[in-house]
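Quarterly update from the structural biology core.
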Amino acid sequence: MNNQIQSLYDKAAKKERLIIGLMSGTSMDGLDIALCSVKGSGVNTDIKVLQFKTGDYTVGFREKIKAIFSKREVDLQLVCLMNEYIANVHAALINEALNEWGYENHQIDFIASHGQTIFHAPQSLHGLKEYPNGTLQIGDGDHMAVKTGIITLSDFRQKHLAAGGEGAPLAVYGDYLIFSKKGEDRVMLNIGGIANFTYLPGSLDASQIFSTDVGPGNTLMDQYMQKHFNQFYDKNASVAKKGKCNENLLKALLTCDFFDLGFPKTTGPELFNLGYLEKAQQASATTDLSLEDVMATLCHFSASGITDAIQKCFGQEASPHIFSSGGGMHNPLLIALLKEQLPNASFLTTADLEINPDAKEAVLFAILANETLCGQPINFGNRQGVPSVCMGKISLPA
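Predicted structure, tokenized:
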């Protein structure tokens, strides 16, 4: 047997595995690195976050990603080169983190890398009947494995597509295993660039679980702040708090076929971008709004998309336990609007479930890798968009 295959087998068979989960989302603020201790698999998964940090991206690196991100026309040579370049940068950030934490690379069993999404194209976006759902994440797993010396699992979303899903959201797989609680209906709300949630029924019936994108989380607000204020995001909603929501613009923003689609569904900055905002302002005759009023309206837009989706799923008097994660949970205005619009719901964060909210998505990929290595596909029944599969391609260091 090839010694690398033997190593893979031996590590997968360990009682406790050290897995690094990685996430670099559409907000592109850095690489989330979660070092996790994992025991068991499936509903018996026991996972603990031993270390977590966000490896900062340089301005130059972020600009390189933006040059190929969420655009239908790009420099194909740059896409080719960035596949390797991103992997090398991520590997360097992992090596730095391990050194900072006092770990040797050989002590780590696996890396679970999401990669960097550069385009997400479900059929609801591209509208081309002869083509399937599509998504593309780059940051090659082989490069990461070689540069770190650690077996790497990557490119998780392609199996989801191949089995009939849209490649997103994948949170349902990890949320079910570590956050379900008998007798308590839970909504695991992640507010990243795009907002999504997973419904976890108190019955623990996997066939009732689903996960869906609901619309923009931070992406439009972040894009607007970067263009008009030269700030990466609206810290503490300081700009949005100075403005007022314009109802005409809000109505125009909410006038989109995406919001009429059934669940589950996916979306991205390919739809919700500054061009989308510009068209909504033109349609609502609000092009002269102050920057602060636009920011306030965008915050209300994100809140409305989340609220409407939860109410459509659970009724106007919805009273689920909502556990938040992602960068948007740090936006005080957005959270206040959600509490105002969902007065019967209980709002908590995944910290109340002993998982750092900022680390949650990186932890998710560690779970997905663990299931591929040590578990079995979860039976979600015949639910549309939630195929019962294990995900991730395996790259060996040598």
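The longest helix spans residues 76-101.
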